[in-house]
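Human: Here is a favour to ask of a fellow structure person. Comparing notes only helps if you start from a blank page. I am asking you to supply a protein in sequence and structure-token form. Write it directly below this note and I will take it from there.

Assistant:
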Amino acid sequence: MYVRWPTLLIAAVLLLSLGALAGAQVFSFRPVNPPVVLSGGDVGFRIIGHDGTRPVGSLVVRIEGNWVPVKDGPPSAGLATP
């Protein structure tokens, strides 16, 4: 009977601390409206928001005056050979 109370107390403290830790893990995404494009001549980065201090967005290229998102693809066969 005396051993049960310390065990319950430790379990309660552990659960409360885990709950506080889980509650502190909030998503801090702040959107940018309208999206901003940081660019060079024809290549840029479209910023759609910030996650803390890091910008979040996508790589874009300028085609006929419009910014178009880049699609990832496999490397060229010529670049893959040594």
Residues 4-70 form one domain. The mean pLDDT is 81.
